[in-house]
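The following record pairs a protein chain with its ligand, iron/sulfur cluster.
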Amino acid sequence: MVYLIVLLLLIGLGLLWLARRRRAATGLPPGRVVSIDTEHLGRFERSLYDPTLNLAGRPDYLVERLGKLVPVEVKSARAPFGPYPSHVLQLAAYCALVDAIYGKRPSYGIVKYADRAFSVDYSLSLENELLDLLAEMRRAEHHKPDRSHESVSRCQACGFHQICDQMLE
Ligand code: SF4
């Protein structure tokens, strides 16, 4: 399970890196403000899994707009200037899953914050960024780091001890 932790860290770092790159390239936030009311929508309860990408996830909502499926992710925080890069990549992952499961490629997804919602194009370049990140994660799977200490008390105080397979007891 340490490997899972490392993967999560890598995802975070990868998302930060992608964020900087995206913003540097465009100078603009990656989303457009849109209107969506999720109050009367039913939550999407099904988990999606694509064995080819070895990717799983579940958007909060999956709505149909003009014959297209649109994944919607809801965040409770107030909206930043543009959607956070990690949220953009999360949406991209949902778009990839919807494409794989339903055979309909979403042209965009929506991330809805407490006070504003953004539409994010599921462009080929965003898809490629997602695939690059997934490939990076796969490579990291083969470099699982070992525990770096022999301290039982440190493991006992560690927030990951319940899921860590290298915990000292
Ligand atoms: S401190 Fe111990 S429990 Fe926490 S991640 Fe490291 S080895 Fe695992």
